[in-house]
Amino acid sequence: MLDRYVLRRLFQRDKLQRVFVERLTEPLHLNVLAAFVWLFGSFRMKVAFDLVARQQYAFSILHAAERAKEFGKKGVTIVEFGVASGAGLLNMCKIAENASKSTGVEFRVFGFDTGLVYRRRTITAITPRRPWTGELLAIHEFNREQPARKIAPFTMLRSRRIFKSARWLDQVFLAHIHDHELRS
Ligand SMILES: C[S@@+](CC[C@H](N)C(=O)[O-])C[C@H]1O[C@@H](n2cnc3c(N)ncnc32)[C@H](O)[C@@H]1O
After folding, report:
1. Residues lining ligand 1, CB < 6 A?
2. What is the pLDDT of residues 151-166, one digit of tens each?
């Protein structure tokens, strides 16, 4: 149930700190309920209760599959920009497999890094951190140059979630393709 990767990450100092700050400050009854979901819950329930490692990937991948299904699409392509040693990409593959079982939607997974290109069966949740540099600057430039395509924070994500203190809730952005046939 708890694989070695999850255990290793859980006992890293910053991760433990996050568990204490983000999770133990949530209402007790929700944490008790989460224990039951952890033991007996479905993949969907575990995603809803933030029990899947890299919650931002889990939520985003499942969300993409559910939207695809809603629009009658059979497959979704997910991409990680900046794969490094591949830990995140492998995590995405595993989540994609579970999301696929849960929704019936197929995944193609791609990962890119400087100078290297991996192709595997697997989405990326964009996690912007600093205003006016890095990812946020890139998003700002993209939005300025694209009149019909905009990247923006996931509106009202917090109000849809059970656990509201999680850091990742502020780091998920959506791409709005206003010139797509489904939106016109
Ligand atoms: C923090 S690491 C990524 C960790 C990985 N996503 C994970 O979850 O395990 C950032 C990676 O982004 C890559 N990177 C930075 N700028 C890039 C660019 N312009 N194109 C592709 N990869 C880039 C770096 O080489 C580095 O491997």
Report:
1. 80-84, 87-88, 112-114
2. 999 999 999 999 999 9
